[in-house]
Amino acid sequence: MLLIGGVVAAVVAGRAEERSTATKTVRAVIGSEKAEFFADPDVVDALAAKGYTVKAETSGSWAMEGLDLKGYDLALPSSQAPAVELAGKYKVTGTLPRPFYSPLVVVAHKNAAGVLAANGLATLDEAHRGTLKMAGYLDAARKDRTWQQLKGSEKYGELTGTLYLSSTDPVTSNSGALYLAAASYVENGGKVVADDAAVKRTAPLLRKLVSVQGAQQAGSDAVFRDFVSGSGNPLVVVYESQVASLLREGQQPDDLVVLYPDTTVNSDHTVVPLTEDGKAVAELLSQDATLRDLEVRHGFRPHGGPPEFASGATYLKQELTGVHQAAVPTSEVLRELARRAKG
Amino acid sequence: MSRLRTRRLLAPTLAALALLTACTAQEKPDNRDDNAPRPGTVRVLASSELGDMTEVLDEIADDTGIEVRPTYMGTLDAVDLVAKGEADGRYDALWLSSNDYLRLRPEAARKVVSETPIMSSPVAIGVKSASLAELGWEPKDVTWKQVEQAVQDGKLTYGMTDPARSHSGFATLVSVASALSGAQSALTDADVTKATPRLKEFFTGQKLTSGSSGWLATAYKRRGNVDALLNYESVLTGIPGLTVVRPKDGVVTADYPLSSLASSDGTAREDVRRLTEALRTDDIQRLITERTRRRPVVASVPVASGLDTGRRRELPFPGSLSVAEGLLDAYENELRRPSRTVYVLDTSGSMKGDRLAQLKRALTALTGDFREREEVTLMPFGSDVKSVRTHVVEPAYPKSGLDGIRKDTAALSAQGDTAIYTSLRKAYEHLGSGQDTFTSIVLMTDGENTTGADAADFRRFYDGLDKAARETPVFPILFGDSSKAELQGIADLTGGRLFDAEEGSLDGAFEEIRGYQ
């Protein structure tokens, strides 16, 4: 297990710092994809209005276990499994609040999405939105299918070589690990992988999904940026929130199709409250109407009711109908899957 | 396949690194005292190519007050430094052309906490416009297979940077190997082995090698008989007369991630975060693409005009160190044309003592770096050339050649005057012309020319050489009491480059020159 050690950048508390005398400071360690959220001045204000200044530092979700969280009020990894581990380590009891989530999606360039659809591997319900058929894709991966073998690909010079989804490194990064969680669920006949036999059964395919990619990026931001800059693989596994966040900036990228895997997993942002103040902030993130709106603005889905993604309705599904959300294996199993996949 | 495993692959000495900085960067090399951390100043260990970001960084300093203090270094050397822990506490951030190679070295990857791509540039081929017309190529449709065919037909020669020292060279090598091996996904050892004959053929077309992109462009211009250069698109678009082609069947792209280091403290990491944020604003992304011809990573900024937006397949970078190093090893020892080098070594009286000891140490260290098939000639001189000893590193028994070099090195002794030009002339005569190798001359002297032919004599001699012989550059090393003007003159005349062993060390200079041999 490679821990990308230590806490990263302190996210500036912005405006609220000036009035910090009136608020309680809450120290949090969060997954990097939420750094923009906590740095947003509107979020800072909304928290300050309730009497809190959150000083957030970022860390890889799986790396939080390696940190000493003494003096922190809460941890907010991007997945339930590492949160459960942390709760065990710090003897936090009770249900862990899960204020919002974001499903794993595949961003595709238009040509690639079109070819997948023409070959029955995806369906498109809008020019920029569709569904990826996981069983079909995994079958293609198992058989080392290349783009050249798919009809309609000959028109596009960039579509050659093995068909695969790019993800982050599953050993260090949550989104890469969640991709394996989704794939292993499908490969295991629609059941979450929970024992050695299932690990053994699914490992060869997972190994294939990872080894074709060669060197993998360490973070979900990097793979998404590569995609946006027009380089990199035409199919990339990212969080829906990353796409929503891009669309929020007013972008309407023409060469972007969002494919929702018909079986996917959610990045379930889960709070591990370490103090009473941490608990109070967790409560606010789940319940406060202003904060919930801001969460949606940053592309997250608050639990309880579909979000109104104001922009990007043609790219994103408002409701996740037709998308099966698979359960994620325990962190122990998931790490074993990641380890075997890396080979 | 027998390969030389003793070579210090990708592991130059620290001294070499310090020297590299001195030679390739405009900045003064960092000295430890003024490298202390300062709030608002980010100490960045950066790929040499990022020297073109000065204007962008100045703009950021004006806007945000964050100053960047860069130390430039080759990407692979920088990774090595990080892996050894020698970047800890000395740098706040790492900014390489790509972290692909870093990720293959867990002990280096562990030092990085977060990374953010800033811009991108793919490997491309810059083809001289006349050659392009002759080949009848349509720039947007060119494939690596066509390039290979043109090389086979003797219609295309090219230059590229040394993959063991420069990431642009490494990325080029991966692109070529992936495309020509027919590998459908990330390269494996088997792919490399299978593709070896084709790659060997392909690299017969390489007529120019360089340790840096800058010298590659200079040498290309000077020679005038090389048809193309392989490098990053951003580098090639800056060279007049080249049409830049991104092969349709795939490229490797550099994405320039700014990475924060685990060893830095909270304040420094906050500065790095602010710097990252500033680099990704629309205004700065626009400035980047316009000034450096790299591609933006935000959707709201279009690529600079003139850069083609057509999609290209991204060739996966090898996922294991064994594949990456195996490929590099194959390139050095099997695929590329071998090199022939004459070391013209000053062993005049003034070298006596510590200087001679330094020379012996540096040369002995270098024997760990010579490639298979390489021909090395030692030509020590004083009042005249004292001896001419040639050794070849034979793939079947590399040790005997290397032992020969070590033995001759140990036997060097200091006496006599300094006949620089007479000795250089003999080096050219020894090399002759017409062999299919990379030829070069290294000149190490600790003083000025005191006897024999003078500069004017040498110029006349050089001008009288045939064109092929004139392509052999002299790489002089500034050392001891040698004259910078004199040595620069020799470098300029012969199309070489001056290396400085005064800022760094003799080992470092010899080591850096390897990239040009």
TrEMBL record, chain B:
This is VWA domain-containing protein. The keyword Signal applies. The lineage of its organism: Bacteria, Bacillati, Actinomycetota, Actinomycetes, Kitasatosporales. Residues 1-27 form the signal peptide. Transmembrane segments: none annotated. Keywords: Signal. InterPro entries: VWF_A, vWFA_dom_sf. Residues 340-517 form the VWFA domain. Pfam families: SBP_bac_11 (PF13531), VWA_3 (PF13768). It comes from the Bacteria.
